[in-house]
Write a structure and sequence with these properties.
Its EC number is 1.4.3.13. GO terms for molecular function: copper ion binding; protein-lysine 6-oxidase activity. Disulfide bonds join 77-141, 90-151, 121-131, 258-268, 386-396, 502-512. There is one protein chain. The protein is built from nine helices and 41 strands. 12% of the residues lie in helices and 29% in strands. The strands form ten sheets. Strands 16, 17, 18, 19, 20, 21 and 22 form a seven-stranded mixed sheet that branches. Strands 1, 2, 3, 4, 5 and 6 form a six-stranded mixed sheet that branches. The protein is of the alpha+beta class and 712 residues long. The chain is globular. The longest helix is centred in the N-terminal third of the chain and has 19 residues, at 2-20.
Length: 712
């Protein structure tokens, strides 16, 4: 019985560990040991092969499996291929594991010989060449049977630069671990981000420079794109010549040949070995230097201060629904109406054109299937095909017909963005998992950098959104004005930032308005400091502007018929000073609020805490569901209305989506992803009180969804 109990206890311990493993480890506990990459030791008679992922792929970690053998690239047949074979492929390429595999040339038909057929791997082999098969080059397959794999995003530690360069030299054991731009001139060392310097590769644990004898502008374009910059520019070569004379470089032995439209250096070809002189300097050349042009949002600044918030002024293309800068659903403006792009043929080339157009680098990922939320309006573009050198996605070839496309196929991108160092100046402390905790910032105090808390006075969702974005943790699910239940670092209890007011679009909390060095916080820090909880997914509520425009009208209504609306603060403040027989002029309209996000929208309050309003005889699940503003053309707010949520439900849904929320019989309230809630124009408080406004042009804005239109 004792051994059996011990076994049961061990199993329970493992199950318990698995249940809470995602929460991470408390401070002070050692992290679990990570597997480190070691180059496989192969027997001398093992065939030397090299692998790559190619074809019509949307991510760098997926594609058609191609094998380099005997001086020629070929493919692998899908006969008898299993997830175990995919595991061997992904591990050999430096990825942690295989996610899935695809038969029947999903990533397009390859060329050349089919090197492997009827593979029978166990998953433990160190190279695909060790798996039993018909023999290298023995196959009865066609390229319509080429196999593809999807590997995990996580890479084996120590094998960072995974896709080894497809090379045209005999030695196939060339593997580069990492690439960087190292600032050389003192004027660039203190700038963030680093935009100019030596291109260095890490080979055998040592950083080495590349000889520029065969370097081209296309190579520089790819390097800049990798590091989040849309383009490259010329630099002062004389200064670098002087520097190279004073400090002897250590050169890498090979050259690189890029076409200029690769998303990553790993997709370029490796050229012939560089001819080095006897003193290990490259003949007729110097170390490669690149100078990159940053997008407007990332203009380099001194390390002591970052640039303020940046609002994109892009007239033709925008990203929506993304959690962090540089990702989102691609939307295009055509004939005054925003629409989406269908994901048919959507790939890294087209995604990179979008990223560069918006001031980012190359695309890390081309997402399909509405992965970053479904848009509204028409599908403007379908079957997009780009060369990679277009200035705008609108210059690419595309099919205007999108009959078979729906918003379930909306295309999205994740772009490379420059390393701004924002994550190093902010942290969450004391939470149960890495996605929540007290907000602590690194600020300058008395000439040194110290960690401290943020005053929670006025702290809300907009500020929490910036924190989650800055840390790369997704969306804000909650903003907390008390954090006594999250004991942070005692040394960081003091308030170092107060008066924080964010618009929600900033890349860093330091970009938001705040008091600077003159702090003011009556609540103090410690247990009353600001906190957040973040989520990888969130609802995205969008007002349909067409419905507003089609249903808007004005009504003059006597005050004695607006008693309930007056009690719920649905009229302007001047209404309290007028007699009961006077009239109020109301701008009435219907609103259709779509949930285009990745999770359902739910009221934060449970049914037990909903508020009963006796005048209207109904419950409010949210005191303010949405706010409507009117602005003059110079941006001054001149009128405001708000709508409480007495019934939040799925009025209608897109085809194939079932309604989940219904107000009848005190039911659960919310808006399902792909559904919308309609508030009709004839419902109380579905208006803006414009009694004091003069006739003219104004801008209408819904503050929750930021959709706007102009009305007269």
């Amino acid at each position: 019985m004792l051994p059996r109990c011990a076994v049961i206890l061990l199993v329970l311990l493992k199950l318990g560990h698995a249940q809470y493993e995602h929460l991470g480890y408390p401070p002070g506990y050692p992290d679990p040991e990570q597997e480190q990459y070691t180059a496989p030791q192969l027997a001398p008679d093992t065939p030397r092969i090299q692998l790559r992922l190619a074809g019509d792929k949307r991510k760098h970690n997926e594609g058609r499996v191609e094998v380099f053998y005997n001086g020629e690239w070929g493919t692998v047949c899908d006969d008898d291929f299993t997830i175990h074979a995919a595991q061997v492929v992904c591990r050999e390429l430096g990825y942690l594991e295989a996610i899935s595999w695809s038969p029947s040339s999903k990533y397009g038909k390859g060329e050349g010989p089919i090197w492997f057929d009827n593979l029978h791997c166990t998953g433990k082999e160190k190279t695909l060449a060790l798996c039993p098969s018909n023999g290298i080059g023995v196959s009865d397959c066609k390229h319509s049977e080429d196999v593809g794999v999807v590997c995990s995003d996580k890479r084996i530690p120590g094998f960072k630069f995974v896709n080894t360069l497809p090379n045209h030299v005999e030695n196939l054991d060339i593997q580069v671990e990492d690439v960087r731009i190292r600032a050389i001139l003192s004027s660039y060392r203190k700038r963030i981000p680093v935009t100019e310097g030596y291109v260095e590769v890490k080979d055998g644990g040592k950083w080495k420079q590349i000889c520029n004898a065969e370097w081209t502008q296309f190579n520089s374009r790819v390097i800049c794109g990798m590091f989040g910059f849309p383009g490259e520019r010329k630099y002062n070569a004389r200064v670098y010549k002087m520097f190279a004379r004073r400090r002897k470089p250590t050169y890498w032995e090979y050259s690189v040949n890029c076409t200029g439209n690769e998303a990553h250096l790993s997709s370029c070809k490796l050229g012939q070995a560089t001819a080095l002189k006897s003193n290990e300097t490259c003949s007729g050349g110097l170390p490669v230097v690149v100078s990159c042009v940053p997008g407007r949002a990332f203009a380099p600044t001194p390390m002591t201060g970052f640039r303020k918030a940046f609002r994109q002024e892009q007239p033709l293309v925008r990203l929506r629904g993304g959690a962090i800068v540089g990702e989102g659903r691609v939307e295009v403006l055509k004939n005054g109406e925003w629409g989406t792009i269908c994901d048919d043929n959507w790939n890294l080339l087209s995604a990179t054109v979008v990223c560069r157009e918006l001031g980012f680098g190359t695309a890390k990922e081309a997402l399909s299937g509405g992965r970053l939320g479904q848009g509204m309006g028409p599908v403007h573009m379908n079957e997009v095909e780009c060369s990679g050198f277009e200035k705008s996605i609108t210059e690419c070839f595309f099919n205007k017909e999108a009959v078979d496309c729906s918003h379930e196929e909306d295309a999205a991108v994740r772009c490379n963005v420059p390393a701004m160092g924002f994550q190093e100046r902010l942290r969450l402390s004391g939470g149960r998992n890495p996605y929540e905790g007290r907000v602590e910032v690194l600020m300058e105090k008395n000439g040194s950098l110290v960690w401290g808390t943020v005053c929670s006075e006025g702290w809300g969702t907009m500020e929490a959104m910036v924190v989650c974005r800055q840390l790369g943790l997704g969306f804000a699910s909650n903003a907390f004005q008390e954090t006594w239940y999250w004991p942070g670092e005692v040394s960081a209890d003091a308030v170092v930032m107060s008066g924080v007011r964010c618009s929600g679009t900033e890349m860093s909390l330091s970009h938001c308005l705040h008091h600077g060095h003159h702090l003011s916080c009556s609540k103090g820090g410690g247990r009353n400091a600001a906190g957040v909880s973040c989520s990888e997914t969130a609802p995205d509520l969008v007002l349909n502007p067409q419905v507003v425009e089609q249903t808007t009208y004005m009504e003059d209504r006597p005050m004695f018929m607006l008693q309930c609306a007056y009690e719920e603060n649905c009229l302007s403040s001047t209404s309290s000073q007028v007699p009961a027989n006077s009239y109020r002029r109301l701008l009435r309209f219907s609103s259709q609020i779509h949930n285009n996000g990745q999770s359902d929208f739910r009221p934060k309050a449970g049914r037990h805490s909903w508020v009963w309003h006796d005048c209207h005889r109904h419950y409010h699940s949210m005191e303010v569901f949405t706010i409507y503003d009117l602005f003059s053309l110079n941006g001054t707010k001149v009128a405001e209305g708000h709508k409480a949520s007495f019934c939040l439900e799925d009025s209608e849904c897109d085809e194939g989506i079932e309604k989940r929320y219904e107000c009848a019989n005190f039911g659960e309230q919310g808006i399902t992803v792909g559904c919308w809630d309609t508030y009709r124009h004839d419902i109380d408080c579905q208006w803006i009180d414009i009694t004091e406004l003069k006739p003219g042009d104004y801008i209408f804005q819904n503050r929750r969804s930021q959709a706007s239109s102009t009305t007269r």
